[in-house]
Amino acid sequence: MPDEQYPFWFCTGRLLEHWHTGSMTMRVDELRRALPEALLYMNDAYMRKLKINAGDMVKVTSRHGSFEAHVSNDGRVVPEPGHTFACFFDKRVPINRAVHEYYCPLSKEPDFKKTCINIEKA
Predict the structure, then answer these.
(1) pTM of the full predicted structure?
(2) How many Cβ atoms sit within 10 Å of the Cβ of residue 13?
(3) Which of 41, 12, 1 is nearest to 112 (CA)?
């Protein structure tokens, strides 16, 4: 659960252009042009609270690791207050460094969908 040190929920996933890890979709010029880098999508209210603007570079840190990414609030992904989202297709933005390595003991599927993070300007 979020706490004082890691107050935000972070969810990873896919977007239309990059449904894969990028090893396939980043080879397609049109897909790469449509979404050239992984972004951290944030809620407007929390961006204002942290004095972060669209396009700013931020450092995302969890108990498991960290990465840096540009922030977006372009409306494509609109996280609820206190939540963030990023797509993990861009090897230059190692999103999964901040995500835990827990997995379902039955299916062995990784549980990359939720991690608590802190966000600060890079």
Answers:
(1) 0.88
(2) 13
(3) 12
